[in-house]
């Protein structure tokens, strides 16, 4: 029996896998680059728009905490696969599987979710508006003479309530421009915490503080709302009023812009 020659030793599979470079398809990389580049551009323009249109306090905070971002450098040209030295065939899977059951790569999925056009200035204005609303309260049904001294009278009224009840004092006030008989009064505070404390305090004393109870229109307070939130508020208020009037007692009460069941109903008047 003729002895066979021993097989040549093979390198372990693990060593081959360690030597393989991490390679992605250029088309996939290009999609990811375009996505990141688009986001970078939006962030840059958003920062500039906030610094231009935001309040002084917001501008100062953004300038101090958000450094300007550089624009991404251009993506290099693809390198032919034949120029990549490798002793074994590449095991990188193809990034796309075409057909009815095709499953796109992560980069293509993210890129396809981007809006066709971005408007950073509009986004910035909405962001600034939301930030300002978060520290603003609104008093409704407060008598309104609509003269040039109305803001001064309103500020004095709010300051007196704040000082007399140990509540935060609003920085400024103004009447919302509209055709209502009693234009809503907007109160600007330093932050959301002060705004919330004032609203809670006003609701606590509005039936006991003589400066409020003496007003025949019964002023009420809420946070500043978006248009969609205002629609929800009006719908909730109408439901509460109609249902309580029908039942002759306060079965429902308001909670922010929504309504809830009243655990202790009282006669409806």
From TrEMBL:
Entry superkingdom: Eukaryota
Protein name: Uncharacterized protein
Organism: Caenorhabditis nigoni
Name of the coding gene: Cnig_chr_IV.g12955
């Amino acid at each position: 029996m003729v002895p066979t020659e021993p097989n040549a030793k093979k390198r372990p599979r693990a060593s081959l896998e360690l030597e393989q470079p991490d390679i992605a398809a250029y088309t996939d990389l290009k999609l990811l680059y375009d996505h990141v580049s688009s986001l970078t551009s939006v962030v840059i323009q958003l920062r500039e728009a906030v610094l231009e249109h935001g309040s002084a306090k917001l501008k100062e905070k953004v300038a101090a905490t958000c450094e300007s971002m550089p624009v991404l450098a251009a993506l290099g040209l693809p390198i032919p696969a034949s120029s990549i030295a490798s002793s074994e065939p590449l095991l990188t899977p193809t990034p796309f599987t075409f057909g009815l059951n095709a499953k796109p790569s992560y980069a293509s999925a993210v890129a396809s979710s981007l809006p066709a056009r971005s408007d950073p200035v509009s986004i910035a204005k909405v962001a600034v508006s939301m930030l300002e609303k978060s520290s603003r309260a609104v008093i409704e049904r407060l008598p309104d003479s609509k003269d040039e001294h109305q803001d001064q009278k309103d500020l004095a009224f709010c300051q007196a309530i704040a000082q007399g009840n140990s509540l935060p004092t609003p920085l400024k006030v103004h009447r919302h421009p509209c055709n209502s008989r009693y234009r809503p009064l907007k109160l600007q505070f330093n932050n959301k915490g002060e705004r919330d404390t004032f609203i809670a305090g006003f609701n606590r004393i509005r039936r006991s503080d003589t400066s409020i109870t003496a007003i025949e229109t019964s002023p009420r307070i809420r946070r500043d709302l978006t248009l969609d939130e205002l629609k929800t508020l009006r719908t909730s208020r109408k439901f509460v009023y109609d249902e309580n009037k029908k039942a002759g007692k306060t079965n429902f009460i308001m909670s922010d812009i929504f309504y809830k069941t009243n655990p202790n109903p009282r006669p409806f008047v």
